[in-house]
From TrEMBL:
InterPro entries reported in the protein's UniProt record: HD_phosphohydro (IPR009218)
Protein name, UniProt field: Uncharacterized protein
Amino acid sequence: MKNSEPASGDNVEAGVDKFKEFAQQASLDQDSIVQEVVELLQLAATTNSTEEHKTEGAYGEEDKHYFIDINFSIFASDWEKYEEFMERTRHEYGFLNDDQYKNLRRKILQSFLQIPNIFATKEFRSEYEQVARENIAKEIDTLS
């Protein structure tokens, strides 16, 4: 399995490879489950949203909705943990200079605040939506 860097464009492939390695080590013999998880990894890495994220009042109940919501749960962390996430993210994009990183990151974060729902599932939205929005807004402020 190769190491992955954001600039190389192989993050999705590296994540899929890592999962397949885990599935093999865990003797996960059900090809359909492995394929479903691979598809969820690819979806989460490429779109990060569903119609339920973009539609006010809509909720998702499929695996993909929970998968993306779990992936986004870092946004609803306590601020100390969120700051660690911010540092790891900045390190991951170390190939960008500060201005490039701040502009790109700010655009990405603002896009989260513009959609009606960061979380698609009812459980995640009711528990974490407000905190996630507050953390994202606070991070945007740190990028100014």
